[in-house]
Amino acid sequence: MLGRGAVSPICEEELMGFGIVELITLLMGISGFSVGTNPNAPTPQAALEYAMPDADVIAYADVGAVVPGNYKVLANLANQPQIKASPELAKAVKKMVAEIDGPRGLVKGMTGIDLTTDISDLTASFKIVPKRDPDFVVAVHGKFNAATIDKVAKLAGKQSIKVGGATMFDAGDGNAVGVTKAGVLVAGTATLVKDRMADAWKAPALTAGTNLGNASDVLGGKPVLALVIGLSSTARTEALAEMKGQNFITDLVKRHKVWSFSVHKDGLGWTWVDSSKAGLESMGQISEGAVDILRAAQIAPRGFAKIILGAVDSYKGTNKQVDELIRRKGDIMKIVETYTGDGQFKAQVDKDPKTLKLSVRLTGKTLSEVMPLGGLLPVGAVSFLMFGRAEKAPAMVREAPPTPMPPPAAPGKKQGNAPKHP
Asked: For residues 327 and 139, what is the distance between their CA atoms, to the nearest angstrom?
């Protein structure tokens, strides 16, 4: 007997109605997603103009290389003939686009900023401070002006003020937001933001060997995403205080000088500066192992797809979805080849025993030839399809009537055992 809240059986036809066909169609549709080129990408000097000179962590994102082009692909997804041919899939895609466009339109209406086209890049720098939140500064290049800050301040219930040719407001909790005279949006710790609003502000020096100097070297390679970490003695002590015991991570924290990781249009890169030759050799071996795994992660999805497609013919005629899978073999292999490489990307691993620096650069024709997107995108597509079916879930749940309760005992009589019910 079904109890309260139990789920009744669902017919196979209903379960499979939004499955392999839609998955193949969606993956074919999003094959246009890519990392492009930002025509307004900043120089390292411009990207780091407002960074903290003594930052422990620096992060960079080239928004203009990723968001505008991919948003256009997403917005046009529902208009593709293959997706329009599936009303249910088209509806799910339109719903997803609408849920992105809703907040986008709201922000644009309130601030005048279109999040998909008006932001070029951002650079964030953080400094670890004992016993309180880190100091931080985030600088964003885009279509910002004094009116932007006036609108944001009004929405926050704050009053904007002029600082020379800049405009800013105190956001509370020790933070502030402003737009410089040059039109760069700066947010972060209030005192740091105020300093950067001044007309007399001068960009910090990008001295070789410092965190900013290392970040400049990384950004010179025009990454899409980058992270540079060089912990000060204070930050190192704070980090180790949060960790217990001796392990690989604590060893890295103790001996490292600089670590960086970057994502490029055509691949990946990372650097490591150690404090010992033994440590340099160890990180070199780890990096070589990482390269081997990345190569295998490119080849494995192709091999798995070939095995499945080679075996699926044995099940012909057993299921409509299986038959559709057989019919679309060519499309499936095209999808796999789009999102994976052959593992033959170029790998340059250099170890300099004098500077104890390891430099790694992995290069392919596209990012997907190096980073194993072949395993990630199908997972995302499946999640999207499951989300699309979520609206149907209530119709699949049928509650059984509640089990009757036994009648109350008559006054003056003891309650006996409740009657048994099937």
From this structure: 51
